[in-house]
Amino acid sequence: MHKQPIVLDLDGSTGVPDGALHVPLQDWQERLRFGCRRSVLDAFDRYLDTQLPAEYGPVLMGSGDFHHLSLPLVKRLAEKRQRPLRLVVIDNHPDNMRYLFGVHCGSWVRRVAMLPQVSHVHVVGITSSDIGSGHAWENYLTPLLAGKLSYWSVGVDTSWSRFLRLNRAFHNFDNAATLTDAVCAMLAENKEDTYLSIDKDAFSPDVVRTNWDQGQLLEEQLMRMIATLDGQMIASDITGDVSEYRHASAWKRWLSAGDEQTLAIPPATLQAWQLDQQALNQRLVTRLQQAMSTD
Questions:
Q1: What is the model's pTM?
Q2: Are strands 59-60 and 6-9 parallel, antiparallel or unpaired?
């Protein structure tokens, strides 16, 4: 039996895949988008307790600005389990960057990696310079040094990792095809209950367009990884949809501009991008439901 997908509708971008439970949450958008205090995220987690069924399938969350909402979703699942949980994050960025004001869409991986129930986090598809030498100091080192986090990247110079003896945590490839081969081999060899978190900014812009700088993955490459996780995947979520937004907070506007986000998009362009995104969401949800099937 396929589990029901969930739409956490924060920005109106995702569409509603077949059979999905639609949870309207746009009143939370300003508080959560891009980043928030930990107390706000905890309050959101408590609110989700009143909205979500006991069992559910893939969760759609809208823009990658909300990727930190994966943290409470993974945490609530991990705390219910007696067995370790592996997290595979498909993302163009490490989401393990320093942030001093709570938790945001680029910092949540450190927190989830250090949960005792999480055995390891693999961030797959990075082409961002966030893990290059120029930004090395911005990466949280604790999960890397603890052996709980690995980066899988394309075309990024990560030679700085050798000086800290972190070589085993860094896997760099010449192109997305060889990365996909290596990730699929690793997942097939090391079978483990897995949570898959997808940020579509890991895709090439030829696949879909997002609010963030994008990577090189193709749709068929991600589908191969999902196929490899058949029988291993127990939960999943999807971000990286595209939406237009102006933060009420000047502080968030400044931070967003510093990350070179694309948040002002002509209406006709936005509509075309969202239609492409929503069609992809339907395909991803259908395949993820199959991989998570309880049949």
A1: 0.96
A2: parallel
